[in-house]
Amino acid sequence: MSKLTKKQKLVADKVEAGKAYTLSEAASLVKEITYTKFDASFDIDIRLGVDPRKANQMVRGVVSLPNGTGKEVRVLCLCTSDQEAAAKEAGADYVGLDEYIEKIKGGWTDVDVIITMPSCMGKIGALGRVLGPRGLMPNPKSGTVTMDVAKAVREVKQGKIDFKVDKAGIVHTSIGKVSFPVEKMVENAKEFINTIIKLKPSTAKGTYIKSIYLSSTMSKGVKVDPKTIE
C-alpha cells in the first residue's frame, strides 16, 4: 500500500470519511484542503435520481450565479450587422458572422460561449460537428439563441452558466473560485442546488438529490448533507 504524502495526510485529518457536512462547513473545508499554487476552481457534483436516457428525465438549464464564476469568459457573438455594436458594448470578445463561421470551419474554437440569433442558425447549423463535441453549439434552452444578444452577452459575462446532467446522472460544473470568501461560495452553491431542485422532472421517482459533493480543481470531494440546504 502506497504511503500518503504530507498534503494527503493533512486532508485526511481534516475531512472525516463518510461524514456529510453542512454547505458552509463543506465550503470551508474545500478552502482548507486546497493547496494549489493557482486559484483553483470551486466545483460541485450532484448525483440525481433520474434516467438521462429518457427524454422526460433530462435535467438541463441555466443559472445566474450571484457572485459570478470568477473566470474571464470569452464570448463570441454571431449576429447580423445591426446587432454588432450592441453586442460589443455588452462585452462580447468577438463579434461578427460569416468571417467567424469560416474560422470555426477551419478549426478555431478559442471561446467559452457562443451566442447567436434565430435568424443566423441556418448558417451555424453546419458547424455542429465542430461545436457540438466541445459544448459550444448555441441552444435556445440555454439562452444562447436569442433575439436580444446584448442581454445574453451581459448575463454570461456576469456569471450565467448552463448545465446538463451526464449519462451517469451527474451534474458537474464550476461555480466559482476557491479564493472567494466562504459566504460567496455558499451563496453560489445554494443558487445552483436550488435551481436543480426546481428542475426535478415529474417522471423522476424515488430520491431526486442522491448526493452532493463540493471540491476544488485538485482537492478531495467533501460530501454535503442535502437536508442542510435551505
Compact overview of the structure:
With 230 residues, the chain is of the alpha/beta class. It contains 8 helices and 9 strands. The radius of gyration is 20 Å and the shape is globular.
Description:
By secondary structure, the chain is an alpha/beta fold. The protein has two domains: 19-69 and 160-228, Ribosomal protein L1/L10, rRNA-binding domain (Ribulose 1,5 Bisphosphate Carboxylase/Oxygenase, 2-Layer Sandwich); 75-157, Ribosomal protein L1/L10, domain II (Rossmann fold, 3-Layer(aba) Sandwich). Helix content is 30%, strand content 21%. The protein is built from eight helices and nine strands. α2 crosses α8 (182-198) and α3 (84-90) runs parallel beside α7. The longest helix is centred in the C-terminal third of the chain and has 17 residues, at 182-198. The radius of gyration is 20 Å and the shape is globular.
CATH homologous superfamily placement of the largest domain: Ribosomal protein L1/L10, rRNA-binding domain
Residues in helices, as a percent range? 25-40%
Portion in strands:
15-25%
Name the CATH class of the largest domain.
Alpha Beta
Radius of gyration: 20 Å
Averaged pLDDT, please? 91
Q: What's the CATH topology label of the largest domain?
A: Ribulose 1,5 Bisphosphate Carboxylase/Oxygenase
Q: Can you tell me the overall shape? A: globular
N-to-C CA distance: 42 Å
* Largest β sheet strand count, sense and barrel closure: 4 strands, antiparallel
Query: What is the number of helical segments per DSSP (H or I, 4+ residues)?
Result: 8
**What is the total number of structural domains?**
2
CATH architecture designation of the largest domain? 2-Layer Sandwich
Oligomer: single chain
Order of helices and strands: HHEEEHEHEHHHEEHEE
Judged by helices, strands and strand pairing, the structural class is alpha/beta
The largest sheet has its strands arranged as: 7-1-8-9
Unreliable stretches covering 5 or more consecutive residues: none
How many DSSP-defined strands?
9
